[in-house]
Amino acid sequence: MEFNIKSGSPEKQRVACVIVGVYESRKLTFAADLLDRISNGFISDVIRRGDMEGKLGSTLLLHSVPHTLCDRVMLVGLGKERDFRAKEYREAVRSSVRSLTQTSATEAVSYLTELTVKKHDVEWMIEQATVVTLDVLYRFDRFKSKQDDSVREPRKLTLAVPRRSDLADGEKGLLRGLAIGNGMKLAKDLGNLPPNVCTPSYLAEEAERIAAEFGAGVEIYGQRQLEELGLHSFLSVARGSVVEPKLIVLQYQGAKDKNDRPLALVGKGITFDSGGISLKPGEGMDEMKYDMCGAASVLGAFRAAVEMKLPINLVTIVPACENMPAGNAVKPGDIITSLSGQTIEVLNTDAEGRLILCDALTFAERFNPQTVIDVATLTGACVIALGHIATGLYSNQDSLARELLAAGEEVADRAWHMPLWDEYQEQLKSPFADMANIGGRPGGSITAACFLSRFAKAYDWAHLDIAGTAWKSGKDKGATGRPVPLLVQFLQDRADIALGNVVRRGRPRRESPEVVEDDAD
């Protein structure tokens, strides 16, 4: 779908559909009021009859509104005006796009992007509208013999800005939104692919495609190279599978000084997790294709960052393999030696994510990173603790945790700061090795993070446990693309700091746009 940015009066838009808002008090937004005036009260009369009460997310499609040039006017409920915030704005945009796909309108102009959302500017409004729209329109039907024709994707969506002087900021927001949306689409596509397609080799090929498209550097390490490098903890997980493991490294140098220490993203890439010898229950095991969503999200974030040409140096590392049972698979009771030299007693082969990540975290040291963030569908315990709303966040630096929390709040990709206290480390004690790979049922997500922290002492580090947020089950089954928005916002914030700019957050926007005379398309 094509996106455009425009400044112009709604009554002059010669288009299939114009989208405007109505508050729960039946108050019309600025754009809706303009349409109401030119139509001699047609819209307000419809509202008085009770067909649109302004409830958040409700929609009403009007045809042939008098004296307008558009074919349709869509009214979108905004809820109570005093409660209209970022969350409500996104929900209004989401509802409008969903309703638009149920019509035959091939193009539309949305004036929801002209609304006032406290502490947010035009750039943010356009960015978020773009991300939400792409999320609503996302479909994964690659393997269906017949396509679903019940949902129609519009050919063109124009997002309105209040003034001509806002057009430049609107364009910036659109470019950011498209980059984030493309990154999320990549993450969702990779997550939704079946495990017989999305293998470690497929992830490596995808990394090579990204590198070729955007001029980034890429290195792929196979079985022999991994053995020579000494990533034995990683290799122990891959041992039971006939599929070759891959260590994928992408590098982007966007900083003015190419010698600037990079930021690093590390993503867990278990392309299928049977549990190994500690076999998982059969029910729901098909969803273990999503155990590589950490890898998918860091690849998506990398793609977005390079598409935005962020002025940072960035390294993305993905250890990718399958975890399968076999005669030569790692067994409970085995002791393995990690790349760091620390030994690990394997008590449960289904706690394999930490075994591949620990070597990747040690491997990251060779890039002398200023900050490392690992992302993983690591523990079912995190789902029990936080459900499917918040990502679990752990860090060895509280200031880094605060940065990530703020980034997540900015883009509605929320995380929750969990404890990483030394007392929890006691649960990882082993009588035979430096540590065990599990710490028992109590605080399972915490002890998993504690395990990783032992391999991340050389730099500022954070861990995102996305086991509850990376995908949805049930009728809406599929990958969510999280935490791509959080990661990209964090990278953007770091780029702003490096440039000496104020972090783009909380800037007030101007009030009540004036009517702008503009030719209709």
Detailed description of the structure:
It is found in: Cytoplasm. There is one protein chain. This protein has about 525 residues and is of the alpha/beta class. It folds into two domains: about 1-160, 3-Layer(aba) Sandwich (Leucine Aminopeptidase, subunit E, domain 1); about 180-500, Aminopeptidase, CATH 3.40.630.10. It contains 15 helices and 20 strands. The longest helix is centred in the middle third of the chain and has 26 residues, at about 165-190.
The biggest sheet, with number of strands, parallel, antiparallel or mixed sense and barrel status, is: 9 strands, mixed
Q: For the terminal residues, how far apart are their CA atoms?
A: 17 Å
Share of helix, binned:
25-40%
CATH architectural designation of the largest domain: 3-Layer(aba) Sandwich
Shape: elongated
**Highest-level CATH class of the largest domain:** Alpha Beta
So, the CATH homologous superfamily of the largest domain? Zn peptidases
- Average pLDDT works out at 95
Low-pLDDT ranges: 506-521
Strand proportion: 15-25%
Write the CATH fold name of the largest domain: Aminopeptidase
Number of discrete domains: 2
Number of strands: 20
Class per helix and strand makeup = alpha/beta
Number of helices: 15
Q: What's the alpha carbon Rg, rounded to whole Å?
A: 25 Å
GO molecular function: manganese ion binding; metalloaminopeptidase activity
Organism: Aquitalea magnusonii
Binding site for Mn(2+) 1: 273, 350, 352
GO biological process, one term: proteolysis
